[in-house]
Amino acid sequence: MSDFIISVENISEKDNIDVGGKAYSMAIIHKNGFKVPAFFCVKVNAYSNYLIESGLEGKILLELARKDFSKMRWEEMWDTSLRLKNLFLSENIPKYIEDEIRAEIAGKYTEKSLVIRSSAPGEDSDTTSFAGIHESYVNVIRIQDILESIKLVWASLWSDAAILYREELNLDIKNSTMAVIIQELVEGDKSGIIFTKDPTNEEQMVLESVYGLNEGLVSGDIEPDRWILDRKTGVILQHTAPSTRIKNIILKEIGTTINELEATYSKNEPLSNNDIKKLYEVSISLENIFSCPQDIEWTMKDGELFLLQSRPITTLKDNEKQWYLSLKRTFENLKKLRLKIENTLIPEMIEDAKSIKEEHLENLNDSEISDLIDYRRKVFLKWESIYRKDFIPFAHGMRLFGDVYNKKIKPSDPYEFMHLLVNSNLLSIQRNRQLTKLATMVKEDKDLRKNIEKRILEGNFEKELDKFVELFGKSSYVQDKNQLLKLIIELSEKKKNETKNSDDSKSMEITFFSKFELQEQEYASELLDLGRASYRLRDDDNIYLGTIEGHYLNSLEEGKKRLVKRSIQKNISPDEIIKALKQKDYVPKVEEVSQVPNFSRESVVRQLQGQPASQGLATGEARVIEQKDDLFYVKAGDILVCDAVEPNMTFVVPLVAGIVERRGGMLIHGAIIAREYGIPCVTGIPDATNIINNGDEVTVDGYLGIVVIEKIE
Predict the structure, then answer these.
(1) Around Cβ 544, how many Cβ atoms within 10 Å?
(2) Which residue segments constitute the domains of the chain, with CATH numbers given?
(3) Residue 354, pLDDT score
(4) How would DSSP label each residue in 537-554?
C-alpha cells in the first residue's frame, strides 16, 4: 500500500478523510456496480508533505495573518488568493511523492488523456458540495503537465471562491487540505447533469444534456436540452430545447475547445427516451445509496453510461456571496460579454446620458422637476442594475489573464501581469489630460488666473472649459463649474507633472507569447486583448454611470432647493421629494437617520499594514475624504486617504503623492489609476479614514503595503 496514492478499487470507508469527499463518493458508486472512469487518488498527506518540505506552510500562515477574512471585501480576497496560489507555482513536488505518481501513471495511464480533479475533505458531503469551487484540468497527457496540474489543483484550495465558501460555512481555513483525483478521460458523445430533486419543485427531477463533453454545460457556454421528470414515475413532464443547438465541447491536442456541431446532430435532441429512462433509474438508485437528493454528472460513449460524480444538493445561504461566486466566467463567455458591452451597452448608456441632460433646470416648474427627477432616477437605477449584471462580471477578464500569465510565467511578483494591462486610454486618464491642459493655460497666464478667481470666463479658456463639460459632463462628484475651476487652479500650482513609471511591457509581451505552442498563439493574443479591454472598461463604465448619476443628483438637488423655500429641509427620500413637488399641500414623511458610529480620532497607531496595490514610496500631508466636498480641498503633494477612489473621483489623482484606501484589491479603481500615474498606493486598511487625521504626515510604501503615520500635534 502506497503512502501517498490509492486506486479506486482500494478506497474504503476508513480512507474517507485521506481521499476527500469526491473520490470517496466515486468509490462507493464503483463498488455498487456502476461504471466510473478509472482513477487513482493522490492523498491529502501528499499535499501536507509538499507544504512542509517546500516551506509553503509558514508562508501561507503569514498571508492568512494579514487580515481577518471576515473583514475582507471580494477584491481583497482575490488579491490574497493570487499571492497564495502563486506560491505553489514555483515549488516542486517532493521527489519521493513524484516517483509514486510517475509509477502509477506508467502502470495504467501512460499516454492516456486524463482529468485532474480536486477532492478536498468535506467536498461533496451532505452539507458542503464545493461545486465548481476548486479547479479541474481536462485532457492532460504529458507527465510534466500532470504534475503541474496537481499543484494547480492544490493551489485552487486558496482561490477566492474557495476561501469565501469556507468562511461562509465557518470551516477552518488555516487547516484546509486537498486530495487530487487522476482520472481517465472518457470522451463522451453526449453528457449532462441530473438534479434528482428540482430545487424549485420537490416533486420533480431535472435532467440536462449537451452533445460532447460536459464542460460547456457546466460553464454556461453551451445551452443544454432540459427535461423535467416526475420523481416518482420518471415520466417526462416537459422538454425545453435550447435556442440553438450548434456547438459542443471536444478535445484538442491539449485541453478542450468549442466546436461547430454537425447539422445531423444539431437537429436532434441528444437523448432518446431510452437514454432518459436509464438515467432516471440510475439517479434514483444513487439517491437511495447516498440517502439524499443528488447532483449527478455523467457522460455517455457509444451508448455506455459513465458516472463522473454524485454529490448531495446543497445551497449557499447568502445571496450576496452566491452572486460573487457566479462572477467567474470562461474565456468564451467573456468574449461574448465584451461584444455585448462594447457594441450595445456602452452606446446605449451614452445615449441615455445624453437624453437626460438638461442644463436649465431653473426654467422648469415644480411639477416638471418632479417628473425629471423620477425619470432620471429610473434611468440611473436601470443602469446600476445592468452594471451589476454585466459590467462587474466582465472584470473577471483581468483575473483570467492574470491566472494564465502566472501559470505560464511563474513570476516572483504575482501582480507582474498588470504591467501588460496598463492602458493610458482610460476615459478617466483622457479626462485628466484635458484638466491638465486647462491648468497649464492658467499656469502660463497670470491674468487668466485673476479673472478665473473673479469668475470672469472668456476667450480660449472658456471655450476649452465648455468643451470639457460637453465631453465629460457632470458627475456624481463635480456638480458645478466653481468646483471645477477650484480644481484647475490647484492643478496649475503643481510644481512637477507626475509621469507614469516606465516598464518593459513589450519584452514581457514577447515572453508571454513564447510560452504558448504555435496552435495556441491566437488564444494567447485574444486573452491579452480581452484582459486589456476588461482593465479599460473597469474604469470607463463607471465614468458613464457616474455621468448618469450626476444628472440625477443634480435634478434632485434642484428639487431639494425648491422644498427648502417651503421650509421643508428634513431628511426626505427621493420618493417624498417627487410627491412634494407635485402636490403643494403634501406633507412629506421624514426619514429616520441611523446613528453613525462615533470613532475616536485619538489613536496611537503609527504603522498600518494593508495590500500593496501600486509600487513606490511617498510622504506627504494626509487629506482625509469623508464626503464629496472634501475632494476640492486636496492640495498638490497630499496623501489621499479615503474609503475608496471611485472612477468619478480620479480627477484629483494627478495632484496627490500617494493613496491610502480602506477597500482593498489590485483591481479596484484607485489601484488602477495609481499605477497609471506611478503613484504609490496601499489598499485594504480598515478604518483608515478614522485612524488618520487631516494634516498627519503619512508615508505610503507601495512595495510592502505599509502606511507610516506621524501624528500632528
Answers:
(1) 24
(2) 5-184 (3.30.1490.20), 190-313 (3.30.470.20), 607-710 (3.50.30.10)
(3) 83
(4) HHHHHHHHHHHHHHHHHH
